[in-house]
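Project standup — Tuesday

K.O.: blocked on the structure for the chain from last sprint. Re-posting the sequence here as requested.
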Amino acid sequence: MQAEQLLNLVETVLNDHKAQRVTVLDVRGKTSVTDYMVIATATSSRHASALSGHLAGKIKENGLLPLGVEGATGSDWVLIDLGDVVVHLMTVQSREFYQLEKLWSVSGEKQMGA
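H.V.: unblocked you, prediction finished:
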């Protein structure tokens, strides 16, 4: 499955299961780890866990397996590594605290002192 197809599948599952503020970051050229990062807000740690389960099930239906899942049970942040796409499912509090969008929006320029 191509990266863009996988990304579309992830977005569909998250939207179908009521994830909020689904954001896609194209990190090609910023890291060699993955092509896309998807960040989505879950209403609770239980919702994050359920989203993780729905996503893993749909990925398996399409003949793929997640490379790794971290924090799936009772966590405020669940990370699902799908290779070309890394998914972060976070509660509102975790998302505001870690601000991953801000972290990955760095254009590669060094910013010092400001």
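K.O.: great, moving the ticket to review. Residues 108-114 have pLDDT under 50 and may be disordered. The radius of gyration is 14 Å.
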